[in-house]
Amino acid sequence: MTTYSLRKGSAEKIKSDVVVVGVVQTEDGLQAAPGAEGVASAYGRRFAPLLSTMGFTGKAGETTTVPTGGVIKSPLLILVGLGERDRLTTERVRRAAGVAARSVSNASTVALALPALDADHVRAIADGYLLGSYAFTAFKSADAPGTPNEVVILSDVARSKDAGRALETAQVVARATCLARDWVNTPAGNLTPPLFADAVTTASKDNKDAKVTVKVTDEARLEADGYGGIIGVGRASANPPRLVELSYKPRGAKAHLALVGKGITFDSGGLSLKPGAAMTTMKIDMSGAAAVIAATFAIAELGLPVRVSTFAPMAENMVSGNATRPGDVLTMYGGKTVEVLNTDAEGRLILADALVKATEQSPDLIVDVATLTGACVIALGDRVAGILGNDEETVKSIKDAGERAGEAFWPLPITSEMTEKVRTNSKVADLAQHNSERWGGTLYAAAFLQEFVGDTTWAHLDIAGPAFNEKGPHGYTPSGGTGIGVSTLVQVAQSLSDGHRG
Ligand code: BES
Ligand code: ZN
Ligand code: MN
């Protein structure tokens, strides 16, 4: 276990195994970033030439490790590039702390002397380090690499209440994000719907500080209660579907937020089978459920005065003799009928049931999170998620919340043409689940979901791209599950408790 603390002190005087400082690019060459001044003066005129000899350019994300040979009190110095001095944002600092976390290999004590001018910076440094040092080793037989006993963030505002709170918040949110990452990274065979539901129950018992109640509905009850979407998608699997509901009801709640997350524990495509290569990462198709569940725990642990009702439909989209067929009609929870035209567009079917269920609670706002469409990855790439909804202001405030949280969302429209197609393209049912035309698949999926939220204010986050990092780590984002959504949803709850829209 690593303990994190805040201390006023200077980088050149602290005695720890490693000290991390930032370097910025200026018109006059490389310069020590705030927090690193003392280190630079300890090296004196040698500082800049030393860096340039090593080929260090100060570019954001760059890092180099230098044995200090007694120039400062600590034996090892890690320099992290922060890019141009005039463009130094808190996000840059957050990413630099993530890069630093991955450069610290075997140290027992680490001092972070990155720019920590205010509580927001302290939050960014803690976020970056906590998220950047994540590793998923559950299925590796070698021992996991050691983690430091102590990480100290050096800051002039160390003693301020805001800074202390920022560090606390960062720890709660990062722990939740890493819980979501663990679930996403767990192989689908080890996280079937029943096992995922059990894991949520266990996580809730482990986290007594979060006053969250968990309710799990099994397949018999789902069938009896008319959850046609969840049953229709989950019926071909040997591992039956579940609906997991979480509830956090603080006294004096200022708003009521409902969260819905797509929990497809594996997406083979069903009878509209995916090609083999497209299936290999489909254990990640429960990233939305992981995010909303973990975020609920974090919001409760922080004690935010917002009521949260969370719905995570869980199903495995498989193939068998009793699978839902293209052309079948499902009656969704609430009674609307849907013609299934492509069993690989399964996410919207389980979400529809859960969205209707969420509206029954009359929340002020519903946010759903889902790895819903490959089209969204084509539109926005793998680092930006799509955001769509039925209220422009809400979409904007959630996008802003994402920006503060270090998660990128970009708005896409739900056009009346798409809504028209959803409502008229089926000759046999109320709604057509799938559009025969590929283009604008993200918009169509959202238009379909919109049919199930009634008048409730609603936003939909399509995280198909950034839920999973198939490449190497960058900034504070590791390879594999990213946990995207957790931090933004906590921020949304924070804004709601401050009286904003989300
Ligand atoms: N889970 C996928 C979407 C996805 C794709 C997530 C890539 C992450 C990475 C979803 O269920 C799906 O299969 N969508 C289809 C929809 C189509 C059949 C309308 C898609 O995007 O191809
Ligand atoms: Zn899917
Ligand atoms: Mn699918």
UniProtKB/TrEMBL annotation:
Mn(2+) 1 binds at residues 267, 344, 346. One of its GO terms (molecular function) is manganese ion binding. Keywords: Aminopeptidase, Cytoplasm, Hydrolase, Manganese, Metal-binding, Protease. Mn(2+) 2 binds at residues 262, 267, 285, 346. The keyword Manganese applies. GO terms for cellular component: cytoplasm. Presumably involved in the processing and regular turnover of intracellular proteins. Catalyzes the removal of unsubstituted N-terminal amino acids from various peptides. Belongs to the peptidase M17 family. This is Probable cytosol aminopeptidase. It comes from uncultured Nocardioidaceae bacterium. The gene is pepA.
